[in-house]
Write a structure and sequence with these properties.
The complex is a heterodimer. By secondary structure, chain A is mainly alpha-helical. Helix content of chain A is 71%, strand content 0%. Chain A folds into two domains: 53 residues, no CATH class; 206 residues, MetI-like (MetI-like fold, Orthogonal Bundle). The relative contact order of chain A is 0.14. Chain B has one domain: MetI-like fold, CATH 1.10.3720. The chains are: A mainly alpha, B mainly alpha.
């Protein structure tokens, strides 16, 4: 905005930034404390007066986490589940989004509205019957249950269609005239042009899967199939004296997403904001 | 929004003809183009049908049955829904969730607008500073609810918590945040504000960026003051974004689960019990599947109705 800085504008600027910086401080503080706590032994963490910085770098929490809990295993599970879910969800979204963007067929509008209608459907509506379905399929306590049900993402169809509408029809027709099959057109012409939205969807789906809690909590019963999200809170019980290890796990469990965020900041924000109305 | 590419016109009416016409040059057998789109749709809709549509319908059926554990389901008509109105724990959860949603709409959302206005305004002139604020406020949004809850257990701890230490540091008295019936829900709201302030500010920032600078400049040239510009230019043009943020806040408020579940387990004495936690307890601890399904539908219905009301309100006050 170019409304000039008038009388008192300078003061407002200082006050405004001070308030915003206070907000940043309050936002960042719990993270800082989490990292600091992960380097404190239990007796220092729960001592008075409360200090933020650790007296010295204590690595015992990390040793405990890696050697005496299944954290490494959980981390691997989280990576595997999130990757599988993300890749499948992207593939299904792109294929269906392509059909909606570039083909005419009976019931197209109806099918699209059906998908859009479930865009904000709360998981809680289907929680009980979906659990029943998993039991019937014999999928309880398996990775299948964590991966497959969430690969049909309405938001993915919406995003993919939006992006693929921009592909000129002439390009597809030219490929058809050259005798390319429909699948070849999809993989060689459409996919390369869909890169930006693939990145956005990848970030969106990966983060959602990584942070998922309720569903794996219900489905997974054996410790070695836990994801990081489900595993971490179980440490609060038996290791309550070792809250530092819980914080170490929280820190390690947040790191991958923060790294992706810092690497792909712009796309990341785009992805999370994808649901927002434009204009 | 047009649902089909413009050049395809009203292709839905005569799909076969259109398909044949487009197929002509390639010389493949007639009809192959016709099933192509369905083949592309198939994988998505198989998963969608099995794991979403079927459970949606099944939940509806289930909500008319009394079924506990593996007992034989018994048809009870609307009994499950009737029970909602007399179930004290459900009503308590509904009250808590509604209060939480009200806080999202009336505290969190205006706060987010203020942050966005400040970041966008003359107060933060440099682009670097703007993106610094953006990243900082965005951090909670990429952190899992589980980690947020585990962090805040430490922040709210009565003896060794960061918050009480800070309060005592400035000469105030600390509280037993999570174990007090009076403070449990407000504590959850505090965590929610911490978690969602950033993303909502970003929504508002995106909305503000869609307002052309020329409009503000023109208004300023006409002698409008800053607050006048805000009320008569910015706010009306921001209306779609405001509606989006409020609807979003309402819908997601009714689904709040992880943070109260891990911070307070809904306690003490149900002081922070939410609808989602209650559904989880009924469905997966008491195994009353029929009743849990009814709770699920009530949850969806309430948030849809509230979102619809907001839409209508905005329409009603929309035409200046």
């Amino acid at each position: 905005m170019t409304v000039g800085i008038g009388r008192g504008g300078r003061l407002a600027q200082i006050v405004g930034n001070a308030v915003l910086l206070l907000g940043v401080f309050l936002t960042v503080m719990p993270f800082v404390y989490m990292v600091c706590a992960s380097f404190k032994p239990g007796n220092e963490l729960f001592s008075f007066p409360v200090r933020i910085l650790p007296d010295s770098l204590y690595w015992g929490n990390y040793r405990l986490l890696f050697e005496e809990t299944s954290f490494v295993r959980w981390f691997g599970n989280s990576v595997f589940v999130a990757l599988a879910r993300t890749i499948l969800a992207i593939a299904l979204s792109l294929m269906a989004g392509y059909a909606f963007a570039k083909f005419e067929f009976p019931f197209k509008r109806l099918l699209f509205l059906l998908v859009l209608g479930t865009l904000t459907l709360p998981l809680y509506v289907i929680l009980v019957p979906l659990f029943g379905l998993m039991t019937d399929l014999g999928w309880t306590d398996t990775y299948w249950a964590l991966i497959l049900p969430f690969t049909a993402q309405a938001i993915g169809i919406f995003l993919a269609r939006q992006q693929l509408l921009g592909i000129p029809n002439e390009l597809l027709e030219a490929a058809r005239i050259d005798g390319a099959g429909e699948w070849a057109i999809f993989t060689r012409v459409v996919l390369p042009l869909a890169q930006p939205i693939i990145a956005v969807m990848g970030i969106l789906f990966f983060t959602a899967s990584w942070n998922d809690y309720l569903w794996p909590l219900i489905m997974i019963t054996s410790d070695d199939k836990f994801t990081v999200s489900v595993g971490l809170p179980t440490l609060v019980g038996p290791y309550s004296q070792e809250y530092g290890a819980v914080m170490a796990g929280s820190f390690m469990g947040t790191l991958p997403i923060v790294l992706i965020f810092l690497l792909f900041q712009r796309r990341f924000i785009e992805g999370i904001m994808a649901g927002a109305v434009k204009g | 929004m047009a649902l089909q590419a413009p050049e395809m016109g009203s292709g839905v009416a005569l799909p076969a003809a259109a398909a044949v016409a487009q197929r002509a040059p390639s010389g493949r057998p007639p009809g192959s183009r016709l099933i192509t789109p369905y083949l592309f749709l198939l994988p998505f809709f198989v998963v969608y049908g099995v794991f979403l549509l079927y459970p949606v319908v099944d939940a509806f059926r289930l909500s008319f049955f009394e079924q506990t554990g593996i007992s034989t389901p018994e048809f009870v008509g609307l009994e499950n829904y009737r029970e909602l109105f007399t179930d004290e724990r459900y009503l308590k959860a509904l009250l808590n969730t509604t209060l939480y949603a009200l806080a999202s709409v009336f505290i969190l959302s205006p706060l987010a607008l203020l942050v966005a206005l400040a970041v966008r305004s003359f107060m933060v002139p440099s682009a670097n500073m703007q993106s610094f604020y953006r990243v900082a406020f965005f951090l909670p949004n990429i952190t899992s609810f589980v980690v947020i809850a585990l962090m805040f257990l430490l922040v709210f701890d009565v003896d060794f918590g960061l918050l009480n230490a800070a309060l005592q540091g400035i000469g105030l008295q600390g509280f037993n945040w999570l174990r007090s019936e009076r403070l449990a829900l407000p504590s959850i709201v505090l965590v929610a504000i911490w978690t969602f302030l950033g993303i909502n500010s970003l929504y508002f920032l995106a909305g503000l960026q869609n307002i052309p600078d020329e409009l503000n400049e023109a208004a300023a040239l006409d002698g409008a003051g800053r607050s006048q510009i805000f009320w008569s230019v910015t706010l009306p043009l921001l209306r779609p974004t405001i509606l989006f943020v409020l609807v979003q806040a309402t819908i997601f408020s009714f689904q709040i689960f992880e943070i109260p579940f891990l911070l307070t387990q809904g306690g003490p004495s149900d002081a922070s019990l939410t609808l989602a936690i209650y559904l989880y307890e009924v469905g997966f601890r008491q195994f009353e599947q029929g009743y849990a399904a009814a709770i699920g539908y009530s949850l969806a219905l309430i948030s849809i109705v509230l979102a619809g009301l907001q839409l209508l309100l905005f329409r009603a006050f929309g035409d200046d």
